[in-house]
Design goal:
Elements: E1 26-29, H1 33-45, E2 51-54, H2 63-67, H3 70-77, H4 90-100, H5 107-115, H6 117-120
Parallel strand pairs: 1-2
Helix pairs in contact: 3-4, 4-5
């Protein structure tokens, strides 16, 4: 079986000498809190598993988890009586998730928690 890697920045396949092929049992994509927790859980489940984390930034320094102020901004943005308030205030929560998270998340996924806020609160 021949492995190929894809360079997202140039949208071209790199030269063979530029490729580094890594073998693992579990590949975790992303370096945010959920991804790192998944990697830890995999090792807790079976310490012999070879777990590889693929991330575009430094662990703990990039991504939504590291750049968001979720403990403060998320709760406040979901309340109808806080600015800007009203039934459409969930959009501000989604915007906060996306913008403060460095615009690295999927905006459609960011809308979900905002739209379901009343049921969850």
């Amino acid at each position: 079986m021949q492995h190929k890697s894809f360079n997202v920045k140039t949208c071209n396949f790199p030269e063979e000498e530029d490729m580094k092929i890594l073998d693992c049992d579990i590949l975790v994509v992303g370096g945010g809190g959920a991804a790192l927790r998944a990697a830890i859980a995999a090792k807790e489940y079976n310490k012999d598993l070879r777990v590889l984390i693929a991330t575009k930034g430094k662990l703990g320094k990039s991504g939504v988890t590291a750049t968001a102020c979720s403990d403060r901004m998320a709760f406040h943005a979901t309340l109808d009586h806080t600015e800007p308030g009203g039934p459409g205030s969930w959009r501000y929560h989604a915007d906060d998730i996306y913008r403060i998270g460095g615009k690295v998340s999927d905006y459609k996924l960011a809308e979900g928690p905002g739209q379901k806020r009343k049921r969850r609160l």
